[in-house]
Predict the structure.
Amino acid sequence: MTHKLALIGFGNVGKEFVRLLRAKEARLREDYGIEWKLTGIASRRVGWIANPNGLDTEALLAGRCPECPAWAAPKNVREWLEEADPDVFFEATSLDRSAGQPAIDHLKAALESGAHAISANKGPIVHAYRELRDLARAKGRKFLFESTVMDGTPIFSMVPHSLPAVELRGFRGILNSTTNVVLTEMEKGLTLDEAVKKAQEIGVAETDPSDDLDGWDAAVKVAALVIVLMDVPIKLEEIERVGIRGISPEEVRAARAAGMRYKLVCRAERTPNGDHAEVRADARAEAPAGVRAGVRVGVRAGLRASVRPEQLPLSDPLALLEGTTSALRFDMDVFGLSIIEHKPGVIATAYGLLADFIRAVSGAPIS
Amino acid sequence: MTHKLALIGFGNVGKEFVRLLRAKEARLREDYGIEWKLTGIASRRVGWIANPNGLDTEALLAGRCPECPAWAAPKNVREWLEEADPDVFFEATSLDRSAGQPAIDHLKAALESGAHAISANKGPIVHAYRELRDLARAKGRKFLFESTVMDGTPIFSMVPHSLPAVELRGFRGILNSTTNVVLTEMEKGLTLDEAVKKAQEIGVAETDPSDDLDGWDAAVKVAALVIVLMDVPIKLEEIERVGIRGISPEEVRAARAAGMRYKLVCRAERTPNGDHAEVRADARAEAPAGVRAGVRVGVRAGLRASVRPEQLPLSDPLALLEGTTSALRFDMDVFGLSIIEHKPGVIATAYGLLADFIRAVSGAPIS
């Protein structure tokens, strides 16, 4: 069966995803009986492009769009979906942290049109997870989003399938690459600004690194994990969030000299209901000295979640992480489990979309 | 629906599994619609016990068997299966490394009787994986074995479901607890014999620790991983296997002083077909000095696999593992992924059986 695919967002991730679809074409056909054609693509640059017979992906990847003049008729997502008529829709636009838009509207429109909806965008998980999940169920379609946290690393697909009936008590991890690179460079003697510049030069940090340095990117990931895996509809402002701007190079180096490393650590753990006051006090007491003044503490009854710089001993596997490597440790009733993603490139995010595609269209469990 | 369960092997793992079934009873019913009764149990001590109406698990766990006189009629596995009439069969007897028996016969009989077959026993994977897999398919039943490697940690369930269409190039890991504990104690100054005694005292090493010290337990796990995940029907004798008896406490301590740690490392990687000579030379050159004389090199065309002591730098996350903690790192085309299981107890193995049970009887993918 040939699946019609439509993709919004044709930046690094979107392009890499199309490349990976092409590279894995034979494997998909032979191992999964999956064939595909790209019938729709949309981005700020190319506009709303649709061709129900399939677009020329090679030309699109080469920056050409021979069909654009003929097929650029749609003016919005609904017209575009009608024209492209996808079986599977992929959302790969950039994050809008405050409301998750317009990605949420894209995903809703796709589900309503009868397509499976796959998102690499975290905003919709944080702002509309339950609504999208319920809409997908009502439509008999899948809403999947593996690549929103730790790229293609199995998290959202692993927990329900591979860890059924566990009691997930909490997690901790390192989920932001920019701060990881910046803190490592500060250990070597750079100032914060110099370290950020270095992270930008190697392609890890964005032009405006505020979302990373202030802990927003990590907090959005914590929210997604808590909402989906712990079934608690936490809001971003309920996550304690301390960035790394308040830590001086001297503090970073002093920690290193003492056998410790500063890392921006993400945490969530269940607490007894209503245990607000104590949690709030704890959180303040544990905040690193340099940032205590600017701490913002938000706690939801029954759960405490935080993103903040912590000093970790070198015996902690999280302390060893370098560069884009990220890690997550789950605390469960049956055992503890850590997942480490080693030095992923953009292909890892693209793979998350591909794996979700396979899971969405394989009716039976993949085994 | 109430599932009838039958279990062979009522040692530590079997008992813990029954305890966990009881502890998770409400969760199974509420979240998965699963009810169960234990209709058969068999072990060297209690014999073949079956009661199609359900055995008294509380009494069995307390070491009593009120129904034994009445129900101990079956004389072998087939009579017992007929009497217990299980929907799901669990194999938890101890490992027979050389032939995988009688566990293979148990699993075959169970599948032929129409039950799903779940094994905590590695022998059948190493000696009869394809046969059992094909028999299960022919019978429309599941053959699952998550707890054979790293207990309940998602490995065999994760790769097909959560990592579809990846190219698995190889893996490395630390999969044996006894040698991990023994090498750590030798770093602290104990001799091999003293360290083994310590490992026995804390319940990690068995009375006869040869299978662990000589690398057999680790080699069996490597074989299972290669056979199932890399689809190469490797034999145990094709895995290079060097145990830790040849390393002196002085060598262990000298490594530690130099910022390295000896670990019994498991490895497998694909090689070009027929690349035997080069691989053989490599393997010898890399073997630790103290054990070079006793090295046994076995290589299969297209794949090299080994279990041997290696010196790892402290910057390698594998070097940090202590006690029963185990880890596996997958080398894939899309990214690298490590899984760490932290300090599992016997409940982790029991959980692997429980998770397989849920996966076997949930018709649809669990998501």
User: Anything to note?
Assistant: Chain A touches chain B through 50 residues (CB under 8 Å). Chain A has a mean pLDDT of 90. The longest helix of chain A spans residues 123-139.
